[in-house]
UniProtKB/TrEMBL annotation:
One of its GO terms (molecular function) is DNA binding. The modification 4-aspartylphosphate is found at residue 53. Keywords: DNA-binding, Phosphoprotein, Transcription, Transcription regulation, Two-component regulatory system. The keyword DNA-binding applies. Residues 134-199 form the HTH luxR-type domain. One of its GO terms (biological process) is regulation of DNA-templated transcription. InterPro entries: CheY-like_superfamily, Sig_transdc_resp-reg_C-effctor, Sig_transdc_resp-reg_receiver, Tscrpt_reg_LuxR_C, WH-like_DNA-bd_sf. PANTHER family: DNA-BINDING TRANSCRIPTIONAL ACTIVATOR DEVR_DOSR. The gene is fixJ. Residues 4-118 form the Response regulatory domain. This is DNA-binding response regulator.
Length: 206
């Protein structure tokens, strides 16, 4: 997978030096002199991070970040700040940036921040795969089995499920055993985890 860095900074010297360093580290780098130029060229990329200067003429980094959010951007954003811009950087992080670096930044700090961004991309991809797998498993269930699972998600006992669905407790046990087998779940906790992962309720804490 080619890892791409979008570097948005109005300082030509920084664009030149940072892009040289990042290319030498093995990244593909695309540079932009201002926010509007970047937004005009914007296209979602599942294997890219954004390095965004917060102080730029015309459209500052926070405005660019807001525009990206409105477009549904999922690419990790690392903001670059000058001395004394910490409050702006904190606001950028509240708006979703994963990290900020104060200029002049160390090469090691920059590379670590970027790798952190790509690690987050990998984590999100893994979560998406888990969700897709969970959804696929749920499609194996019959309508009644899905109803029983929904009741289990709500924390109901077998007796309460039987009363709610107007079936016998024994029938509930049969449906419960069948859905556990179809979900490949060896415990109620595992079955609930699948249900929550597929967004049939709120996500369980990890």
């Amino acid at each position: 997978m080619t890892k791409t860095i979008f570097l948005v900074d109005d300082d030509e010297a920084i664009r030149h030096s940072a892009s040289f360093m990042l290319r030498h580290a093995g990244y593909t780098v695309k540079t932009f002199p201002d926010g509007m130029t970047f937004l005009d060229a914007y296209a979602p990329n599942d294997s890219a991070c954004i390095l965004l200067d917060v102080r730029m003429p015309g459209m500052d980094g926070l405005a660019v970040q807001q525009a990206l959010s409105e477009r549904g951007n999922k690419m990790p954003i690392i903001v670059l700040t000058g001395h004394g811009d910490v409050s702006v950087a904190v606001q950028a992080m509240k708006n979703g940036a994963i990290e900020f670096l104060e200029k002049p930044y160390e090469k090691k700090a920059l590379l670590e921040a970027i790798e952190n961004g790509f690690n987050r991309i990998a984590d999100h991809a893994a979560e998406a795969d888990q969700r897709s797998e969970a959804v696929a498993k749920l499609t194996r269930l019959t309508g009644r089995e899905s109803e029983v699972l929904d009741c289990l998600v709500d924390g109901m006992t077998n007796k309460a499920i039987a009363e709610t669905l107007s079936i016998s407790p024994r029938t509930v046990e049969i449906h419960r055993a069948n859905l556990m087998e179809k979900l490949e779940a060896d415990s109620l906790s595992a079955a609930l985890r699948i249900a929550f992962t597929a967004d049939r309720g709120r996500e369980l804490p990890r």
